[in-house]
Protein: acyl-CoA oxidase
Organism: Nocardioides seonyuensis
Amino acid sequence: MSTAEVPVTSDDQAEHADSPGYTQPVVDVEALGLLLDGRYHEIRQLVRDNLAEHAGILVDAEELSRADFRERVKDVVVQMAGTGQTGMGFPEEYGGGADIGASVAAFETMGFGDLSVLVKIGVQFGLFGGAILQLGTKRHHDAHLRDLISGRTMGCFAMTEFGHGSNVQALGTTATYDADTQEFVIHTPDDASRKDYIGNSAVHGELAVVFAQLEVAGESHGVHALVVPLRKDGQVVDGVRIEDCGRKMGLNGVDNGHIWFDQVRVPREALLNQFADVTPEGVYESAIENPNRRFFTMLGTLVQGRVCVGGAAINAAKVALAIAVRYADRRRQFEASTDGEETLLLDYGMHQRRLFPLLARTYALHFAQDVVSQQLHDVFSGPGPNEAGGESEQERRKLEARAAGTKALGTWHATETIQECREACGGAGYISENRFDALKADTDVFTTFEGDNHVLLQLVAKGLLTDYSSEFEDMDQFGMVRFVAGIAVETVVERTAVHKLFQSLRDLLPGGDQWDQEAGLLDPNYQLAMLRFREEHMLAGVARRLKRGIDEGLNPGDVFSRVQDHVIATARAHTERLVLEAFVARAAELEDGDLKVALNLLCDLYALTTIETDRGWFMEHGRLSSARSKAISREVNDLCRKIRPIAVDLVDAFGVPPEMLRAADLVGGPGRDAVS
Amino acid sequence: MSTAEVPVTSDDQAEHADSPGYTQPVVDVEALGLLLDGRYHEIRQLVRDNLAEHAGILVDAEELSRADFRERVKDVVVQMAGTGQTGMGFPEEYGGGADIGASVAAFETMGFGDLSVLVKIGVQFGLFGGAILQLGTKRHHDAHLRDLISGRTMGCFAMTEFGHGSNVQALGTTATYDADTQEFVIHTPDDASRKDYIGNSAVHGELAVVFAQLEVAGESHGVHALVVPLRKDGQVVDGVRIEDCGRKMGLNGVDNGHIWFDQVRVPREALLNQFADVTPEGVYESAIENPNRRFFTMLGTLVQGRVCVGGAAINAAKVALAIAVRYADRRRQFEASTDGEETLLLDYGMHQRRLFPLLARTYALHFAQDVVSQQLHDVFSGPGPNEAGGESEQERRKLEARAAGTKALGTWHATETIQECREACGGAGYISENRFDALKADTDVFTTFEGDNHVLLQLVAKGLLTDYSSEFEDMDQFGMVRFVAGIAVETVVERTAVHKLFQSLRDLLPGGDQWDQEAGLLDPNYQLAMLRFREEHMLAGVARRLKRGIDEGLNPGDVFSRVQDHVIATARAHTERLVLEAFVARAAELEDGDLKVALNLLCDLYALTTIETDRGWFMEHGRLSSARSKAISREVNDLCRKIRPIAVDLVDAFGVPPEMLRAADLVGGPGRDAVS
């Protein structure tokens, strides 16, 4: 589903808060909940039921020893696997659900609960299972899928090394083919090449998908993946050494370890040979000739993990908001002068300012996540990258960039939101029972695992700058610098989608060149045009700076370093534009009525706080006058006051299971009814 | 020491980075360390030695059970007390050091180590001991000080209640005088009045200073403090009920509890009677007639705790920066095109942008903290509030406001800095051994305890708006609204210090009204003038808005709610101005040389990033052109590149004991030498 092509008609504005006909909406919580759940309501309900059934694990996380908690988490994962919840992304013939979108929806919903369970599921079914499915062929599927889907075989995804987390193309582990025995020899040449922080490896993992430099007949073919046994009957096999990573900030129910391989031999068939193979005689074969492209095609299978983590992070933020908003709706502090009763926190303007923009952004990201998850479903339900032509390949690159951007913004949003909500609950927010302890500690790594957010935003920017061209995968960041510097700046900008959109919108907007003066702040066309202008302008600026740096004779590394903050800002601006488009399009689809009014309040608040946050940039670039900038801040406050009466309904609609909101002192005991 | 009166001469500019004579400084780490330590170098070294001696507690925090860790923390606290470290703020006749500044310096330095030890020290010697010292008289000093200074008697500070954290004037606990027995009866009337999160109470506290509504002969006299026994021979005394708060996000070495009192009787002499007393016959007496002023005078003794927490937070941020900067100076990722070696993280422009402004702000806050700590020393070493006249009372109010602002900014800075540094260390930052786990979890509550940061900033704003007038203590936030609305806006602004300063500076600045166009970005006079203008303008805006709201007939609660975000922003702008003044003044004092050049780089970076962050506001208010705003961003990047070569020296100068930087994988093993 592409939302970009849906221009919003002026009729849609009638529902916005500045129209004369505006009346305060009444929110049907159940209807809004169904709207949020979307087509995957059923699987989300199954997960909610599973979470409620195993709610005791939230207490276990605090009370059990690390060793016991790891076992408990494993048990819950296996039990949940038994309900079919975790196998939705696998083919039916192996016991899966054959619905990738459902698999993402299930994973996202796990974000309401204990996140060790979530991450263990991610490692087992997403990373390990996903690699077997996507990188392997029938022999691997037949050998492993049924057992891993049921949780009988636990596995690891051994990519990251101590020396290389982000730059995985430079991994040090080797897999050398021995034609005499028809085996690969897996080896860790030095400590920098030890596999690091590998989930499931310290205790439970029996198998690992190991990423290593493939060497055949003295020639290196780059990073490939192989299935390597780690344990047999619970004992670590010869040649493998595993050390426990020990205590982490959070996610202590997941057993992370360091792994070293000392000349470990696996049969030739252990190579996951979807994209490349080695014949018994030792001839390397691949349908993808370019080694870089081959590597990035394999890496592309990681995209599902990023989509999943982004969605889970957004849902973790919902839990924090549900607690903080409900708390602020019952907690009073300091006396208002008139009636002698103390004032509810949620009636303070500052408290609204702290929570409601985050609430609005949570809704925005939810709908943006729906779009990326649907795209993932479509791309991965279609023909594989081997069979598909170039156009499909470009679709995959675009999906990867979109998933990267949404993951980065979604996970940073979770960190920020959980922190703000914790502080908004004062000292009570510090007590573990009230959930913020686990929410903070467990989500903290989301911003740097499954792709470091800054590195992911660079990936987004690379796509924009190169138009996802065929050279896309070949280029590291410095190659990208040279590539962009070699073409005209106008070319970079003109071929981007946003440029075309912006051109067509320029005519549509009221007032011609004066559009930013004339258009109503609550006109989604105005809001979108602002974000599109920013993106286009930033993109051109990056291209110009890169070109200038190379023209001045600087080396690409220095050029990149100097432009890097602009690169990151551009990627962020791009993703924020996509998020707003998704929200605007979803709201525009709705029938007129209170739900639409409520969502438009949130959509306006998201759009205007996004502009407000970056108002310095818009003023610097002549797209916002002082007066209008101040008007935006006033409008934001006004929107907050309009959201105040429906705020509790808006968080209730998230459908966080009552058992997941322990926080008895904060939200009034288990369950919604105790509060209302 | 007042820094505000020190106008910077144009000579000082010669050392700034835009002068033609600029050469990259070489940093003498030891000399810079001594400069940072200042006059309390000796006591800071004692604490460093104590921290190193008990370094094993960083591991114990992870490995011991909660019960065992609490005992361990208590033992370390008592051992440290034995070195004299924790008693610096008490009179010599009871075994103290009689140096309040030294007591603050010692506490701040504890911020490098385990923070449960820090907070337990804060509860025992700062809150409990401080209340006995400040609110009690000789009979209480004789009875308790010697034993509490040595740690033989452990005590609690029982103020906060479930229903009232910030608004402590509305506490529910009562202390009713029974003239027949000459006793006070301490009672918890309902669950909202239970004492909440009271440190030292779940296990160790034998005594508590309990804040309760004093009732004598049927008349209520507001909140007063009494010494109440909690335990005798380790057993909780009759009438007292204590529940363990259980697991918290961090600080699990401190035993927090909930306390209920059921008609507990204490002798008349238990009342801490420095500011008020009850005769045996039951007559209430106080030299301070106004009950509000009496209450806030008692509360004023809390100021030392706020100064201490702010300083500790700044030092915790130093630990995070020391780890992240050293890591980025040895960690390589992605290949630069030229030499085939991967690039150091610290050579990436974005990485510099993420860390160096935080490093600069840490230095700025360090010097601002020095100023507030010195003021605390001066005020509390002078005559007490009973003996002193009105002027001294106004000095106390100013100190309270300054301490509140610095505590708020310092603790938020710690939260932000630790988070950014964690992310900048990637997955390695998530492993508990690498320190960020404890740093994040333990400091998290700093923003909301010892005064919620938002409430503290409101206190700052109240002082500015009322000029710390005699009505200061009488006013709650709504009273403040009415007060301000009742006087001319000009009056509010004119009588503030910033207005006078700004007037005198206007003449001094080059270019008259065009000063913002003409002055050099690295001229501290320009930077200060910008922050002063912002503060003055915001303050006038708040006054105008409050007045308008009341004139329009809104009730004070609604008016306050609508203006609250401006109130908070004004207090923040005020405190940022004080911080910059402190930094500029300290740098200006230095002799010419490399240290001065280095500190000026940091001072410029702090000033310009502060302006850059709020550049939207400056442009809205006509004090920054687009071109100049962009120039500031370029200058910030340029300053970051200049700081790059000395960044490791700048964090080494903090003097974090090597044993406190566990993080072997990140910083290259224990000790500086392993890295350099």
Observations:
- Chain B has a mean pLDDT of 90.
- Chain B has 24 helices and 15 strands.
- The two ends of chain B are 38 Å apart (CA to CA).
